[in-house]
Amino acid sequence: MVCSSFTVYSFDGILVFGLLFICTCAYLKKVPRLNSWLLSEKKGVWGVFYKAAVIGTRLHIAVAASCVCMAFYLIFLK
């Protein structure tokens, strides 16, 4: 059974995907071996991971609040 709130084609799905991507990249930035492998490039296609990690670490309070609000929305309002 596929839940429609997790499809990437809806606005909710895009927000969930973006938040999970930012949180994952910020976590990977804290792991030394993965940081040097995945987040070493700052430009190009691989630079998206670096930029998401920077957003996740600099705006960690806003990202955490957004995750809590999205979880509340998906569990109780959707």
Key features of this structure:
single chain; 78 residues; mainly alpha
Write the layout of secondary structure elements.
Layout: H1 11-30, H2 32-38, H3 47-58, H4 60-77
Any overview of this molecule?
- There is one protein chain.
- By secondary structure, this protein is mainly alpha-helical.
- The chain has helices at 11-30, 32-38, 47-58, 60-77.
- 10% of the residues are buried.
- This is Protein kish.
- It is a single-pass type I membrane protein.
- It is found in: Golgi apparatus membrane.
- Involved in the early part of the secretory pathway.
- It comes from Cyprinus carpio.
Percent in helix:
over 70%
**Helix vs. strand class:** mainly alpha
Distance between the termini: 16 Å
The ordered string of helix (H) and strand (E) elements is: HHHH
Number of strands: 0
Report Rg: 14 Å
Q: How many H/I helical runs?
A: 4
Uncertain ranges: none
The whole-number mean of residue pLDDT values reads 87
Q: What does the main sheet amount to?
A: none
Sheet-strand content, in percent, reads under 5%
Shape: elongated
> Oligomeric state of the chains?
single chain
